[in-house]
Amino acid sequence: MTKDIFDYIENSRRMRSSGVDLEYYQDEQGLVDIRPYVEPTLLEGIGEGLERVAGTTASLVPGAVGATLGLPTDLASLFVSIGKSVGAEDGKKLETFANTFETLSKENYGSQFYKGLFDNFIDDLNISDQKKKDFKAGFVGGEFLGVGNIGGQAAKKAPAVVKSIKETSEEVGKAAQKRVAENQGSMTMSSMGVGEMGNMVNKGLSKLAPNKGEVINLKPKVDRLNFYSKAEEVTNQLKQNKGTGQQYRQQLLKAGVKPDEIEWLGLDDVLNKGKITKQELQDQINANRIELDEVELSGGDDVLGGLATRFNENETPMSAEDAYGPEYLQEQADEIFKNDDLMVDSIEDAMVIAKETYDDNPIMKYVDPETGYTITGNGDVGYQIFRSEAESSNFRNAIDFPDTPYSLNEAIIRVDEELMDTGAFGGPMMGGEGTRFGEYTEPGGDNYREFLIKYNNPEVQFDESHFNESNIIAHFRTKDRTTSDGKKVFYIEEIQSDWGQKYRKEQSNMPNIQDTSLQEYERRVLDNTAPPAPFITDTDKWTQLTLKRILSKAVDEGYDFVSISSGMVQGNRFNNKGLVKFYNQIIPKNAEKIVNKLDKNAIQKDKEITIGVQTSLSSGDTPFSSTRPKKRFSIELTPQLKEKVKKGMAMFSATPLVVGQENE
């Protein structure tokens, strides 16, 4: 036993001399040992407030603890006193605390010092006298702070205390928080005197304050979209307070911080230096936080409700002469007749073939009777858009877009954007909260919504999206559906990043700097309208960000599953084979990468989801709606997955928040 004590003392001296902050704890044999103090970064509940300060030593007997380890006897007595008072009868908790502490204390500062310290907090509050009385008893007895896990039982005996726990605790936290700000003294056990003890108690109590976004302790900030910085989480837990930038970089990368996050937080500016401090890293993270926001569009019909329906209901094939001019069919017939491989006997036969070929895939005209906008074209030649049917008689009147849409739905979306931008439509215009694209969904379902994930950075501007908002990193569109067995599904109708797609396209069109002049290269850079920003430079990155936000939203709103539309549906809707790969391969790949860190059993690749269908009994009959189960890639929101998601999702990495728990 003596050898153990000397080992403890030697260990204590060694760590004190290194300048590391220390804390005391009780090992498995019930002995007190010392270890580096790690600032608490995850509050499982308000109970961790003082319990973290006091360790788990509420049942310790002071004696040898204070004598052999230099632990202030008052502190040891304080722990014992709290433990004693927890089990006391209602109304006698404060008295038990005071009597026990006075008996055990061997120093000049006795129970009245600590009793007064606690009382001062409560007396400062603008609450009723009864609440003050309840909280004083509850605090001393551990009812609010859960010391020794006895608080719940004690609280059951005091309904008045239980009723006001939350609001009163938060008010106490605010008062303590203010005192911490006013008294920035040492918080370490290694240099603690009575004044520092007071500061430690202040700091413990300050954790009861409601979170307003300030970093009160070293917990990584979780934003309102449930994202946090992995770099901040790892930095806060680093034991090393000083070192080289290269050492810190290696530690961050080893712990799972992505190079992208290091870049966008500007950490390279610090890490490229020689010697730096942990505080410098924390300051850089705080100064360069990536701020994301979300806009939710919901509530009834689309702003331009029925636009797609009106276009499709006013569909007519154009004659070859109207589409291409009076000479078109004759020119085609001549080409056919001259082609020896076709072996056409006469120009008349060639004319028949030319007409049949055109009629098999004619140019179609779609007119919106409410606005007059007209679309002409087909999936092979693309679609042109005109502001009136009269203008559609000459292709030179078409609205000039940067690229040609090869999907009718995409062309209609272009009209939607044109109407919103110009205010040509008589309905609600910019700034409204209505949805935009509810017609582009699978049949059935309800509660259609559109979610826009935005990058809040005034120095960056991107406006070329499908919505009247700036800096949209990605958007997702949803409906509520059910599984075939009746479970609630957060159904993803679409995931898209206009910014990411635009950036990728512009970068792919950039000339090699080796093959062009510097002036030409700079001109092309200036012509680009999609500036670089976090996530949008890589499809996997913005896809993962969106999927993590989807999981957080679904968990928060109590869904049982997240299910995602199929590649076949998306490819057919927008005449785009690339969408087939995105929905059938890229989304599942990234979803599995995220979800396997949360619950390996949550992925269900072929979950049956109830989807509406349009059917008719025979040709000419009016279609009617029905539903049938269709297999979709899905994620079950299991209890394990929900628990981890609720703790926060790392913006850049796939790992869940692990502060305060073991890495899994």
Short précis:
The chain is an alpha+beta fold and 664 residues long. Helices cover 43% and strands 16% of the residues.
Q: Numbering strands along the chain, what is their spatial order in the largest sheet?
A: 6-11-12-13-14-16-15
Q: Structural class, please?
A: alpha+beta
List low-pLDDT spans: 39-87, 101-114, 138-166, 183-217, 426-432, 659-664
Number of distinct beta strands: 17
**What is the end-to-end distance?**
37 Å
Number of domains: 3
Task: Quickly count the helices.
Answer: 27
Mean pLDDT: 74
Structure description:
The longest helix has 19 residues, at about 575-595. The chain folds into three domains: about 1-205, no CATH class; about 225-290, no CATH class; about 445-650, no CATH class. Mean pLDDT is about 75; it is low at about 40-85, about 100-115, about 140-165, about 185-215, about 425-430 and about 660-664. It has about 675 residues and is α+β, with helices and mostly antiparallel strands. Strands 6-11-12-13-14-16-15 form a seven-stranded mixed sheet, sandwiched between helices. Strands 7-8-9-10 form a four-stranded antiparallel sheet. A two-stranded antiparallel sheet has the order 1-2. It is elongated and about 110 Å long. The chain has 27 helices and 17 strands. It is about 45% helix and about 15% strand.
